[in-house]
Amino acid sequence: MNKVLDLNDHKRRESVKNSKEQPITGCLFTAAIFGVLGSSFIYGYSLSVVNAPVLYIKAFYNKTWIERYGEPIRAETSTLLWSVTVSIFSIGGLLGTLLVPSILRRLGRKGTLLLNNIFAVIAALLLSLGETAKSFEMLIIGRIIVGVDCGIGLSALPMYLGEISPRHIRGSIGQFNSIFICMGVFTGQVLGLPELLGQESRWNFLFSFLVVPSLLQLGALPFLPESPRYLLIEKKDEAAAEKAFQRFLGKTDVSKELEEVYVEARAQKNQHTVSLVQLLKNPAVRWQIITIIITMASYQLCGLNAIWYYTNRILREAGFEENILPYITLSTGAIEILSAIVSGLVIERIGRRPLLIFGFSAMALFFSLLTVFLNFQDSASWMPYLSYICILAVIASFCSGPGGIPFILTGELFEQSYRPSAFMIAGTVNWLSNFMLGLLFPFMQEAMGTFVFMVFVVICILASVYLFCVLPETKNKTFVDISKSFAKINRIPVLAPEDESQDVAKMESSF
Question: What sign does the dihedral 397-401-406-407 (CA atoms) show?
């Protein structure tokens, strides 16, 4: 038996060595770029685009109210309308997530991404024409619809990227999702500057810009292949899967890649997409589900969104003029992008698990320091600068791992038939956590003041401890091997080594 295991390890090492010699093809790179443009980028942009024109949108609400009812809008009504405009984005995201499995089943990964652009275009029209139509309801509906677009995109895109990428670069390609979320946020900040579109006469065009990434994706993605795993396992179309593998890998002989997918299919009792109920009842994926729920909840509840509440206040206390604050806060967006890129470059060397644990642990450390510095903010003139450095450090820590890896893990921890329902669970937790934090944080901040960050310290520490104890490393592993890593904790018997060796001998592939 030891000889068999040694043979298996040797074959796996040779497989990984050979796969690392394969460069990223133009087809794979193009699919990743245009995939994230119409999905992750729109999500990031939608998060930041409402910040710059907030005063102009509230003025539009008041003007419309006066024209309709002959009196100015009351302060509490204005606050309510604005809160609904911002927070209903999360409700749209949840609706989109719930739609994902049925759309994926019918249209596949690429087809779902293409269909999703309809929501982005409709949302852009509603948001940009609302003022002309004198209807603030159009803005609210537009925010729901762009939320649906992001809910679908954040589930379908990581699935597509994970299934088209060779395993030696699966993490790096997956980090395109995080990088372009950050780029979307940064683009919203830049376009919202007063010199560009952050003016009363131009704020509509901030929302019109949503059409641009959608049109770019619509122009390129139809000419790129569908996920070969989807084609082979779910559509049973070996010829199309072979062509897709050939284009993504840039080689003609993909028999080993096809065989590996067949091995994955044989390892599953059900080759068709399982329902949410079936997934939850399956003991073989119990701890994968728990891991995804905890990781996704920590992704939203770790406190990054709360950081933005204090950024401008700290800069004001540091003595910066109000009119230059938007330009200084661009540094936060730049740090996000830089950290996400660095994470994408090192993820295949360091691994998912260390980056996640480091990211959450570092956030806990810098949140603790930020709490101290904020409480001594008035004791020295240089203290606000330390607070701002802590804010940048928290952002960098988040983007180094927790900002993108949870989406990669959701695709890696589940085999083909479980993946759509798994992304629905992950997306539901993501959007509900986002909504809950937005709802509760103002009350938490009012009650606890600057000590509110200690809540996030506890969440980050608990996330780090759980991941250290439960999560196995997934880099350079096949989806079948990753599932086997959870066999012991799920109390599921593992495939006998003799049987495994027969499969390994056939699947020295890059997937």
Answer: positive
